[in-house]
Design a protein that fits this description.
Helices cover about 15% and strands about 30% of the residues. By secondary structure, the chain is of the alpha+beta class. It is globular, with a radius of gyration of 13 Å.
Length: about 90
């Protein structure tokens, strides 16, 4: 998978189908509206997502994101700029 800013990450086929809508006739996908838990981190941190053998390293103001339905083992990081462009924080 390649993101809007050229970032790349692996994603299993079933997870891709459950998470993204493919625009017909293109290689473009958009994220489905799926609730996640997210926390903006204040210190350097790392997370080891289940789909990678490497840990991801985050910096202050990056976001730690977790699939609400899959639990704490399905977590990843999102850089602050990308999070602000691609996630919606609902108003309470």
């Amino acid at each position: 998978m390649t993101g809007a800013h050229g970032e790349n990450w692996p994603i299993p086929a079933q997870d891709f189908e459950n998470t993204y809508n493919i625009k017909p006739g293109t290689y473009t996908a958009s994220k489905k509206s799926i609730p996640v838990l997210a926390k903006q981190m204040q210190k350097n941190f790392f997370v080891k997502p289940p789909w990678s053998k490497n840990r991801l390293v985050g910096k202050p103001n990056d976001w730690l994101v977790q699939n609400k339905e899959k639990g704490p083992d399905d977590a990843w990081l999102v850089k602050e700029k990308i999070f602000n462009e691609t996630y919606i924080i609902p108003e309470h």
